Amino acid sequence: MLTAEQIKAGRALVDWSQPRLAEAAGLSMPTIRRMEGPLGPGRSTAANVEAVRRALENAGVVFMEAGETKPGGPGVRLKASG
SUPFAM superfamilies recorded for this chain (predicted)? Predict the structure, then answer.
């Protein structure tokens, strides 16, 4: 499951505003705001979380689960170019 921090960090990596992410994901601004808020995306529908994930991944963001590459929490990085 994505975290609010991963969504915000992913947006920052690709220099997207909340409105830009909302447009790319086909969601409303209040939905994006809620997903990035204190309760995170846990209260959103699975379809909305997937839409955000897909939009950011299409822009080059790679989501990492906790402990996936090194010990630690969930994170994000940019896809290698080439």
Answer: lambda repressor-like DNA-binding domains
